[in-house]
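Hi L., both proteins are below.
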Amino acid sequence: MEKNPNIQFQSPAEIKAFQEERLIEQLTYLQQNSPFYRRLFIEHGIEISQIKTIENLCNLPVTTKTDLQLHNEDFICVNKEDIIDYVTTSGTLGNPVTFALTDEDLNRLSYNELLSFTTAGCTKKDILQLMTTIDRRFMAGLAYYLGARELGMGIVRVGNGIPELQWDTINRVHPTCGMVVPSFLIKLIEFAEKNNINPHSCSLKRCVCIGESLRNSDFSLNTLGKRIQEKWPELQLHSTYASTEMQSSFTECSELCGGHLQPELIIVEFLDDKNKPVAAGEPGEVTITTLGVKGMPLLRFKTGDICYHHTEPCACGRNTMRLSPVLGRKGQMIKYKGTTLYPPALFDILDSMPRVINYVVEVYTNDLGTDEILIRVGSEDKTEAFAKDIKDLFRSKVRVAPGIAFESPEYISKIQMPPMSRKTIKFIDLR
């Protein structure tokens, strides 16, 4: 893959022209090598020679998670002996999907994370503490390691959990940057407070955060982000958004106003329920077309994530599209007593309550066939008065109050991290 890291600083017109050249290359590759897309083009009478611009993509069908689940192997474009690495999606919205990567794909993955780290302000002088797993069929952990290695950073692979080991590593190796799920930073802070560790004087100055939002749609810090910054104000927090399917990421720069698109690696559309582009200022489903992927490239894949996007130039000098925090996942939308909710809005309320140690949000269908919400709260305070406080806060924030069930924090922790899970589970959909 020919690299062009400066494209993100060129004009929007130059970025678009560059992407459209890459799109034509990708469509030709799909027609020649993808059993799924070759069949799709024939069934829909599609002449790929007519698809020359990003706007022309609207003339093509979208690809869904169901397509990947039903026809997984038909998306593979290479011989089996050319596959170097196998990973799976997390299975948040159903059965996990297997992805096959070639040597070129791993190089592309490495380059993506190099761009991600440099966007966040990292340099070769940094030492990265990797606080995520690199095993369990997890693409991201491997990507972070490869990208940090390509940038030339020192790397210490601690993995997830174990606050004591994390702090021992910080004191022993003196990393300057962490790769972490942001809620784990709360656990690091709590461990430090209990063990007379002063985080303000440690070497860690920046964290690139995955898996959970730090900001609201206007880029102000949400409750989780505020809690971290109040306790650890010296720590700069950068959000990054990615998925196994897109094999690339969107990372915040020093301006902290949305994740930057990498034009070399992906084209993004924002679509409504009818697969039409949303109007400016409207939220839409993030829909991606990968560029330069060899093993399992995707065309107009609907991720299920609902976001805003911003196209005005960024003060950092980049002219790329920027992605807002995820508002929610389309498949996790809740219609509750006439109000439309997404789980992140519920998480933000619960994160703001100090007496809530941990929680799981359950959604199920009641006897009337409508959505019902039960929040299992891990807390030392199990009084009716506290349950009322929780409900009152929900009414003030989102106009409706869910059911509350108190559990021990230990029980909630077991629900959040079942044996096969790579991610903390806060939302369980029983509908």
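That was the first. Here is the second:
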Amino acid sequence: MRKVLLIITIILLTINGYAQTQLWSMASDGGAFLHYGTIFKLNLDGSGFFVVHSCDFPTSVIPEASLIYLPNGKIYGMTNEGGGNPDVGTIFSIDPATNIYSELYIFNDSLGNGYAPFGSLLYSNNGKLYGLTIEGGAGYGVIFSFDISTNTYNTLIELDSNKGIYPDGSLIQASNDSLYGMTEEGGTNGYGVIFSYDIVSNSYTVLHNFDSVSGLDPLGDLLQATDGKLYGMTWEGGLNYGVLFSYDISTNIFTVLHNFDSTTGNVPSGNLIQALNGKLYGLTTDGGIYDKGTLFSFDLSNNIYSKLIDFNGINGWWPEGSLFQASNGLLYGMTVVGGIYDDGVIFNYNPLDSVYTKLRDLDTLDGFNPNKSYFIEVRNATSIPQTTSIPPAISLYPNPNNGTFTLSYHLNQLGIRNYQLEITDITGRTLYSYSIDKMSIVNFQLSIPLSSGIYFWQLLNDGAIIGNGKLMIIGN
């Protein structure tokens, strides 16, 4: 029955989400100003590629990692440099309805705030953004918060050699509300740490010190899978070429699950994702038949690692970022180099039939060198009108919930028919899409359990957003 529900869900998402959404991402080089990077979007079939913003000096230089799409309808991200000084970095927003780019904050280490943000922003359940820098503060980076309602920046933790230094990835918020991350160096052994940060108490805790056995120099982000454990990868260590590991936050047990090797792929640089089929997917920058990187899966039910694709140069080379599963069920990613122009490629991979498709060869004007970048999915605001939510008429309860909830709306106030409820994750990926007709109170039980965490819901009528909010899933 669960397999049937999964197939039905994927079909619904393909029908309802495919033509209405676009993929957005960033490249760290190229663009109209040649070397400062771009922010771009394209359709899920690879058509409609469009450079939304070409970064330029001094306002925005070298956008890193990924964008995030928030319930207020805006997209947020960071640049590693720019802002009047090429070594500080910025926080910015983009309105996808108008493609207007706005600089919100310029990092200023003269105030001890840190600079050179290297990962992505995290949208927390308290409504604030959180992130990491690799420089500044005490000299080794900071944890910071940014309030989008007031554009207020706060330095929370200054990293040092004991806490861990040079965080190369991003923060995640786990089901217990704590933030988790990794540093590339520092800690007891000097090879990086896993840490937690409690928002309420402003307390920082080192959970694991990496070593030559458990892996060296962890890169990318942690992932909390549906089993509640954290999963991640290291660049080196283990038997030589890096490891894939788990960390159980309930027992504090660290486990090496796979040692990367030159045949099946090594030197992973990006993040793991968990696809709708429950498996983990990721990329290695090196190894494989052509020694140009691989795409792989890892089955949590039996701890089996499978090499799925060998990059060969023409189909891409050096996939340094991460994969993203879109609403059509396909996995999307990019490579830093390779392709016709040797500027990287955009590709997708179908986990159902194992078909790899190169969608676009990047070039200088597109932007190239998508450094640790991955896609998010954004509703096509140019073709779908958005209207202001009417809070008194629409409510979702209880919230938080365990996947069972009630959506209530009043037809006599809204006077409309043919609703659609969509649930997305924090990256903008549409997980569920339900059609609702002529009922004012609807009870839902999600057919595929979601792991504990933050999600977003929106109620649509003929493409117009008439209500939206955060959905908190707990107890899964």
